[in-house]
Amino acid sequence: MKKALRKQVLQELKSLSKEEKQSINDWLTDQFFQHPFYEEAKTIATYLSFPHEFQTARLIEQAQKDGKTILIPKTYPQGKMDFVLYEPEKLERNSFGLLEPQGEFTILEPSQIDLIHVPGLAFNPSAYRIGYGGGYYDRYLEPFPGHTISTIYPCQIQDFQPDSHDIPVEEVLIYERDF
Q1: How far apart are CA 80 and CA 140, in angstroms?
Q2: CA end-to-end span of the chain
Q3: Among 25, 40, 110, 121, fewest CB within 10 Å belongs to which?
Q4: Cβ atoms within 10 A of the Cβ of 104, count?
Q5: Rounded distance, CA 42 to CA 118, Å?
Q6: What does the record list as coiled-coil region(s) (predicted)?
Q7: How far is the C-alpha of 83 from the C-alpha of 21, rounded, in Å?
Q8: In contact, 108 and 43? CB cutoff 8 Å
Q9: Cβ–Cβ under 8 Å, residues 46 and 56
Q10: pLDDT tens figures, 131-150
Q11: DSSP 8-state code for residue 91
Q12: What are the DSSP calls for 123-176, one per residue?
């Protein structure tokens, strides 16, 4: 079921026009910057987006201008993930085609992170998410003490039952309405 849902939502995301995506991205980014979680956070973990996802470049750039420390994920085998300081000069493409830090980097502990901007393909009305299937975020978020938020397109709202190991996101910003 999750596999079929991933495929369906991915197709819907890829079918959005460039103009529609830009309009939604701009609106969601503005909402993100106005959210109390963002305003209060000093250290924010986010992701480097695929072309079909919510685009994080403007978010990262503005957060840095606002004096916030930006972290990005570094993944390892067996579903392990850390968040490391965002240093663009140390990025290389990984096997999934994502830019990821290489060489030496600074890992921050979960207790040092105020807010995680969580990616996902599908979200249900209770803010549970379906990611790409690696389980990285569910494992990381289970003990995470800080805030979590996601920014999604309307086509990403889907009705599904979460698995017992799934961890909901605290806040989901969706184009034109929140849940």
Answers
A1: 8
A2: 23
A3: 40
A4: 8
A5: 17
A6: none
A7: 27
A8: yes
A9: yes
A10: 988 899 999 999 999 999 99
A11: E
A12: E-TTS-EE-SSS-HHHHHHTT--SEEEEEE-GGGB---PPPTT----SEEEETT
pLDDT in tens, 80-136: 999 999 999 999 887 777 788 888 999 999 999 999 999 999 999 999 999 988 899
Q: What pTM was estimated for this model as a whole?
A: 0.93
19 burial class (0-12, 13-18, 19+ CB within 10 angstroms)?
A: exposed
Structure tokens at 48: 């480097």
SS3 41: coil
DSSP letter assigned to residue 54: P
Burial zone of 54 (CB within 10 Å; 0-12 exposed, 13-18 middle, 19+ buried):
buried
Helix (H) or strand (E) holding 15: helix 2-15
